[in-house]
Design goal:
CATH topology of the largest domain: Butyryl-CoA Dehydrogenase, subunit A, domain 2
Number of domains: 2
Largest sheet: 6 strands, mixed
Shape: globular
Bound molecules: flavin-adenine dinucleotide
């Protein structure tokens, strides 16, 4: 098949029979359901870009097996040029949503690519698993799958898990294995985009202790979302309406988050990447290079999101005539610094990239670690700045239908500003509201706080893995100086 277009994508998710629940309703067709169709259309538009004559050269490359165009995020980068070419493709996708579609499928595509290149890593566990990683990569690339992933067990009792041992009653675990595959039972949180994805990666993320009773919690596999026994339970939908003016972001980019329940789900052997080896599971993300490639995609999303927020903040201050106040400039400058910091991290990760032991050009980890540890603080702060600089304008935004009411003249008169008439101004501030105040906005803030995991433990991990000794040595050398 090769690179899909939007219609191919929509047809794929329409036809499969995944078990998706929203409240008391089992959703039969996600492409027409009011809670999901807006985002489904947006993802279809991403796939359409792969066939846009002006863009397709920057969105696709030639499949090494079929010679057909395939999505560029599947490219195995061998040079820095390859990395930058891939970045360009990711920028096109991410700028489309102002970075608000955090789970466009390039995020997982690079993970699948890196896993295939590091096939020997999985072969250490079982030679079949290395083959699985390679075969799955080809399958995903040639079918241009849209994927999500789920890594974390539910928060039933975190005090049980502090030692690295998951809570046994609810955590996803292997309960059986037979000639066909492994059987898993339990739940995972969360799978963003779950209802709109073709397949789901179920990988380990937390550090598991290498104890015999932990082995059943140690695995990595991929399966179609429409696998018998797999259920997705949606949170409340945050797309409150379909008006592009009133709900400019949530009507388009409501990705939906789901709890994923596995009721004795059979995972065929050819979909298993790791099994019963807590040590290999715990080291998987950094050692295979998956983490670095995903972090690069995420940094591009962070850049696009920072650009979008900065653009909105500048538009808002212009509309309000507040651009010349120093404290306003100081706050806007803070957002500029955030954007430029993200850009610098991306550039450094590409400039310092090196061929890794799997023969892949891997972006440098240190600048990406800096980016992924600082954005969880930057993003909420930029949203706060938007609130502080917009104030009541975030509430003085009657819905667009008010222009068809007897009070339209009042709105035209009282809500215009020197630079924008009332309609334009309301349009802008509805956007600002969907970034700063709506349910969609609150979810985006939470999402960024926890994107790569608990920020406290992420920082602790950075502290533990960063090579501090040369710096301590330098201080000691200075202290020993006599001249
Ligand atoms: C909007 C949204 C979308 C998401 N989408 C996805 C997705 O698509 N796929 C996916 O896999 N995950 C997703 N997640 C889940 C995300 O990965 C987790 O939220 C994140 O890893 C933190 O885990 P947790 O929520 O279980 O919080 P916890 O780890 O339970 O942390 C909660 C609080 O308890 C503290 N705490 C808990 N345990 C410890 C401990 N052992 N030591 C110290 N402090 C501790 C933390 O510091 C924190 O303050 C999503 C989350 C959100 C909010």
């Amino acid at each position: 098949m090769g690179a899909r277009n939007g219609a191919d994508y929509l047809e794929g998710i329409k036809q499969r029979d995944a078990e998706i629940w929203l409240g008391d309703e089992r959703i039969a067709d996600v492409t027409v359901h009011p809670a999901l169709r807006g985002c489904a259309q947006s993802i279809a538009q991403l796939y359409d870009m792969q066939h846009d004559v002006k863009l397709c050269d920057e969105m696709t490359y030639t499949s090494p097996t079929t010679g057909d165009p395939v999505g560029l995020s599947f490219l195995t980068p061998r040079t820095v040029d390859d990395l930058q070419r891939r970045s360009q493709m990711m920028f096109h996708w991410s700028r489309f949503s102002g970075g608000m579609l955090g789970r466009s499928s390039d995020y997982i595509n690079v993970e699948i690519m890196a896993a295939a290149a590091a096939a020997d890593y999985y072969s250490q566990n079982d030679p079949r698993f290395g083959e699985n990683a390679q075969n799955y990569y080809e399958y995903a690339r040639e079918n241009d799958l849209c994927m999500t992933h789920t890594l974390v067990n539910p928060q039933s009792n975190r005090s049980l898990t502090a030692s690295g041992h998951p809570s046994a009653d609810v955590a996803l675990r292997i309960v059986d294995e037979n000639a066909d595959g492994i059987v898993v039972r339990g739940a995972r949180i969360l799978a963003t985009l779950g209802p709109l994805a073709d397949e789901i990666m179920v990988f380990p993320s937390t550090v598991l202790k290498a104890a015999a009773d932990t082995a059943s919690f140690a695995f990595a596999f991929t399966i179609p979302c429409a696998t018998p026994g797999l259920k997705m339970i949606c949170r409340e939908a945050l797309a409150y309406g379909e008006s592009r003016v009133d709900y400019p972001l949530s009507s388009r980019f409501e990705e939906m988050d789901t709890i994923v329940v596995f009721d004795d789900v059979l995972v065929p052997w050819d979909r298993v990447f790791l099994k019963s080896d807590p040590d290999l599971c715990s080291r998987h993300f950094p050692e295979t290079g998956c983490l670095a490639h995903m972090a690069q995609q995420v940094t591009i999303k962070n850049i696009c999101k920072s650009e979008f927020l900065l653009g909105i903040i500048c538009s808002v201050t212009e509309a309000l005539g507040s651009t010349e106040f120093q404290h306003v400039q100081e706050k806007v400058a803070e957002c500029i610094i955030n954007l430029e910091t993200m850009k610098a991290c991306l550039r450094a990760s590409e400039a310092d990239a090196k061929i890794d032991k799997w023969g892949v050009m891997r972006p440098a980890a240190a600048p990406l670690d800096a980016a992924r540890n600082s954005f969880p603080r930057m993003y909420p702060r930029m949203v706060e700045i938007l609130q502080l600089l917009s104030a009541s304008s975030l509430m003085m935004i009657p819905p667009n239908s008010a222009f068809a009411s007897p009070v339209a003249q009042d709105i035209d008169r009282y809500l215009a500003s020197p630079k924008r008439d009332a309609r334009d101004r309301i349009k802008l501030f509805r956007l600002a509201w969907d970034v700063a105040c709506s349910g969609f906005a609150g979810r985006q803030v939470l999402y960024e706080r926890f994107f790569f995991g608990d920020p406290v433990r992420m920082m602790s991990m950075l502290y533990r893995t960063y090579d501090k000794q040369p710096l301590i040595n330098r201080v000691n050398e200075f202290l020993d100086r006599e001249d």
